[in-house]
Amino acid sequence: MTDHDLERRLRQALHDDASSITPSDRRQAIEALAHEGATRSGRSRWLTPVAGAAAAAVVVTLAWGATEVLRPAPGGGATPVAAASTSAPSGPSSPAAAAPSATTSTLPGGTTPAPGTSPTPDASGPATSPTTVSVAPGESQDATLPTYLVGAVGGAGANRRYGLFREFVSAPVPVGATPAQRTQAALAAAMEGATGSGQQPVLRPWADTTVSGVTVADGQIAVELSDAGPTGLPHEQARLAVQALVWTATAAVGEGNLPVRFSVAGGAASLLGAYPTSAVYTRPAADASYQDLAPIWVDAPAAGASLPSDQPVVASGTASVFEATVPWRLTRSGAAVATGFSTASIGAPGRGTWTADLGRLPAGTYTFTAYERSAEDGSVRAQDESTFTVR
């Protein structure tokens, strides 16, 4: 079969499947998604599965052989770094809160203290049934890659708060892939983001941007983007969108808190209209990771996991919460099954690990939610959840 025949048959299969779908009035839902970007499906830690010709596929094409790699520009002097404060400026003229960095200079958004260290959460850990992100045909192998997404943690409307959530995806990379190639694949997946019908919005400011090249050399990561992304995002959302790329790149390389430099094809001087490409961006230090990361992560059970009924279910994750207290609830079809609380290994501002033993559960579909209550009024300040099945 020739490449032309294969392409023709794939196009016909997609056309046939599309023809079988009965449209419905989704105007309001589409408008909501357009406003929020996308959603995390029941705290979906995985990209939507590619399940045959009838499924909606997420396709990320990486032209490895034809990609021109970017080499970092020579350093020297004090270099701005990404602010990791809880509020970000609109541009260079409005300095704000402080953020740890690899240098001692200022990004539009804050004066930076002493150099940071590697953050507490890393790219290691189990990745259960990751979804495949397709690439162009070629000699490749699947690799489990860490990505970071900007997701809602609490609040609503103009008061909605966001933080970074770590997602693991399985993506093809070239056989014997270099750190730069793995990083390019991870960034491509992170910029595509997660989609679904859940209630927790995910921002996707980079959805129309591609990674033109990545170089890892001289203790730095250099990333070239096809464009600078949209302008006009709220300050904190824009800051986190840049930091999501920084966390993804450093996690994929796996060599600690390396500084990240960005450039844009065509020579744009800033990312998202606010963060200069002349800056060097880093993660905050470990004891300041709360400035970027969502307060609570539910890492297990993984969203969409299928667990045996003859074994106890243990939920686990990380948190940076007041007095290390992590309340949780387990529901089935909306009805409460169990409630309780766990104690993280360390309280805020540190980030600790926590577990919750749910025991053996009858067959069914469950949603586990971990949350943080406000110390002021007891309201839910942040939460994360995972929906899974017991068989």
In short:
The protein is 15% helix and 32% strand. The chain has 391 residues and is of the alpha+beta class.
Q: Can you walk me through this structure?
A:
Helices cover 15% and strands 32% of the residues. The radius of gyration is 21 Å and the shape is globular. It is α+β, with helices and mostly antiparallel strands and 391 residues long. Residues 17-39, 41-135 and 195-199 have low confidence and may be disordered. The longest helix is centred in the middle third of the chain and has 19 residues, at 235-253.
Number of strands: 20
The description of the largest β-sheet is: 5 strands, mixed
Query: What is the terminal separation in angstroms?
Result: 42 Å
Radius of gyration: 21 Å
Q: Determine the number of helices (DSSP H or I, runs of at least 4 residues).
A: 4
Looking across the biggest beta sheet, what order are the strands in? 14-20-19-16-17
Residue windows where pLDDT falls under 50 for at least 5 positions: 17-39, 41-135, 195-199
SS content category = alpha+beta
Estimate the strand proportion.
25-35%
Helix-strand sequence:
HHEEEEEHEEEHEEEEEEEEEEEE
Helix content: 10-25%
What would the principal axes of the Cα set say about the shape?
Answer: globular
Q: Overall mean pLDDT score?
A: 74
